[in-house]
Specification:
Layout lengths: L8 E5 L3 H12 L3 E5 L11 E4 L2 E4 L9 H9 L10 E3 L2 E6 L5 E5 L2 H12 L4 H22 L6 H5 L1 H8 L10 H8 L3 H8 L18 H9 L2 E3 L4 H13 L3 E3 L4 E6 L6 E6 L2 E4 L2 E4 L3 H6 L19 E10 L8 E4 L4 H11 L8 E5 L12 E10 L8 H19 L7 E7 L1 H8 L16 H4 L11 E3 L10 H16 L1
Parallel strand pairs: 1-2, 1-13, 2-9, 6-15, 13-19
Antiparallel strand pairs: 3-4, 5-8, 6-7, 10-11, 11-12, 14-17, 14-18, 15-16, 16-17
Bound molecules: flavin-adenine dinucleotide.
Flavin-adenine dinucleotide binds next to helix 1, strand 14, helix 14 and helix 16.
Length: 495
């Protein structure tokens, strides 16, 4: 006798990196998976722009923990290197300060410590100790806070969970990242450099707990990487992998809402273009604040954690630039003179700061075909408050002017006369294109001690079949954490 077993069905709303990885993982578990994406391309914030002979990564530029991408290929029985290649950066970032200091950060904690010794004339051991501590912290915290659902009984009862419960100060949550850095580093420029790690998830170093120092561990102990074909190749290759695994993609398809049964405790599928589509499982990769605000479900958001500040947004100028600028690297930072004032503007005044820290990413340094011959592709970003005001054109114009002035004074480059192509993104365009609430890049910020405990969970226990992945839910924003959220969701669904 033949028994027919119906394939379980899953729908993923949104083809951001978290949604793509969830789709691959569910296909690997035997689900029939559909991905609905409102735009005409996959990637969400991790997108690219090709125009006038230039290619730009529109969103992420720093790539860490490539093994989290590789795992997806291995899961499908494929050799990752056949599809996705990358290189470790020997030089992680070039930092410039207004007083004329230049620091080239080499790969590896020891070389980094010696580079700081040479430039700042300081003892290298506090930096080595800091990075060792950041590594230990990560190794203790990741199994509890990153690689499983949280907060759960299981997480609290795990070995790491019990260790942390016995001695919470091990996580260094009781002082701000800035205060910790000030206690460790004698030189204010080093304090500023390590404060900047709070911005990797859109937070304020003067408020966020020192626990965030573990972000520095990823970049300096584990390494920073560059995909050979640019950041967007991560999306391209995972999408192709998903297609090979049988996932079906539906672009230009804006999902209107998640359907539930009459009792409200079980999802039934989704509604799109006025039609209902049944699925066993629904995974949302939308920014979770948008999910509730857009009425994707007639159910309240979790109470705990409401009122957390949003992470920062950004203003980004994508400039095709004539000439080669050898004094710049792949990643470059031009620091603000008064960092505290910059964050007061971003989080308290909700305004752009007149002397912002400027980040310049030039992928054509590693991938020359990203720019016309004799040119470079500059991705120039400043942090912006996550707000949606009606008209921000004057703020964009002021930011552009402030950036060009800073580049001229700190790098001696008259960039305005060299720009041959320009595209601009701002909090409003980021919100419109990716659905991120008020343009926040990482959902809620980690500005408070309870942030890790109050991120939206990957599952609502009261609604069976509904799951959440991506940078606005547990464990957090950034490519590695989005990939971690996809893994958690797939395991929860499996259970
Ligand atoms: C400028 C910038 C710089 C960044 N820099 C870095 C970096 O250097 N390193 C790093 O690791 N991370 C960085 N990040 C963060 C990283 O990009 C994000 O954390 C990550 O890409 C978010 O992925 P996600 O899975 O949450 O989905 P998202 O990228 O938020 O995508 C969500 C998708 O859902 C779609 N969608 C929304 N509503 C609907 C609907 N109703 N129906 C169907 N589809 C819908 C959207 O169109 C979008 O494609 C940066 C982000 C930005 C914007």
């Amino acid at each position: 006798m033949i028994t027919l077993v119906r394939m379980k069905t899953a729908v993923v709303i949104g083809a951001g990196i978290g949604g793509l990885a969830t789709a691959v993982r569910l296909a690997a578990k035997g689900f029939r998976v559909d991905v609905f994406e409102k735009e005409s391309y996959p990637g969400g914030k991790l997108a690219e722009l090709r125009s006038d002979g230039f290619r730009f990564d529109l969103g992420p530029s720093l790539f860490t923990q490539p093994e989290r991408v590789e795992e997806l290929f291995s899961l499908m029985g494929e050799n990752p290197a056949d599809h996705f290649t990358y290189q470790q950066l020997s030089s992680v970032c070039r930092y410039f300060w207004p007083d004329g200091t230049l620091l080239d950060v080499p790969s590896g904690p020891n070389d980094f410590a010696y580079a700081c010794r040479d430039v700042f004339k300081v003892d290298p051991s506090p930096l080595s100790g800091y990075l060792t501590n950041a590594r230990d912290l990560y190794n203790l915290a990741a199994p509890v806070f990153i690689d499983q659902p949280f907060p759960t009984r299981k997480a609290f009862l795990s070995q790491g969970g019990r260790e942390i419960a016995k001695n919470p100060s091990i996580l260094d949550p009781f002082v701000s990242l800035h205060r910790r850095n000030k206690r460790v580093f004698k030189d204010s420029r080093m304090v500023q450099l390590f404060d900047r790690y709070a911005t990797y998830n859109g937070s304020n170093p003067y408020k966020a707990p020192a626990t965030l120092k573990m972000i520095a561990h990823l970049e300096h102990n584990l390494g920073a990487f560059f995909p050979d074909n640019g950041m967007y190749s991560i999306v391209r290759e995972i999408t192709d992998l998903a297609i090979r695994a049988g996932v079906r993609f539906h672009y230009d398809s804006m999902v209107q809402r998640v359907n539930r049964n009459i009792e409200g405790n079980q999802v039934l599928g989704i509604r799109m273009d006025g039609k209902d589509y049944p699925y066993d499982v629904v995974v949302s990769d939308l920014d979770v604040n948008t999910f509730y605000h857009a009425g994707m479900i007639d159910y309240h958001p979790p109470g705990f954690g409401r009122g957390q500040a949003l992470s920062t947004s950004a203003m980004i100028f994508y400039w095709g630039v004539a000439g080669n600028h050898d004094h710049l690297d792949l990643h470059n930072i031009l620091f603000a003179e008064n960092y505290e004032e910059e964050f007061r503007h971003l989080f308290k005044l909700k305004k752009m700061y007149s002397d912002p820290t400027v980040y310049i990413y030039i992928s054509s340094k590693k991938a020359p075909s990203d720019a016309l011959p004799g040119h470079e592709n500059w991705f120039v970003m400043v942090n912006a408050p996550s707000v949606t005001r009606k008209d921000i054109s004057s703020e964009i114009a002021s930011a552009r002017e402030a950036i060009l002035k800073k580049i001229k004074s700190m790098l001696g480059v008259d960039l305005a006369s060299k720009i041959v192509f320009e595209h601009v993104e701002n909090p409003q365009t980021i919100e419109a294109r990716t659905g991120s609430w008020q343009g926040a890049l990482y959902g809620n910020s980690s500005n408070s001690r309870i942030s890790a405990f109050s991120r939206h969970p990957n599952q609502r226990s009261k609604i069976k079949g509904l799951y959440f992945t991506g940078g606005s839910v547990h464990p957090g924003g950034g490519i590695p954490l989005c990939l971690a959220s996809a893994k958690i969701v797939a395991e929860l669904i499996d259970q």
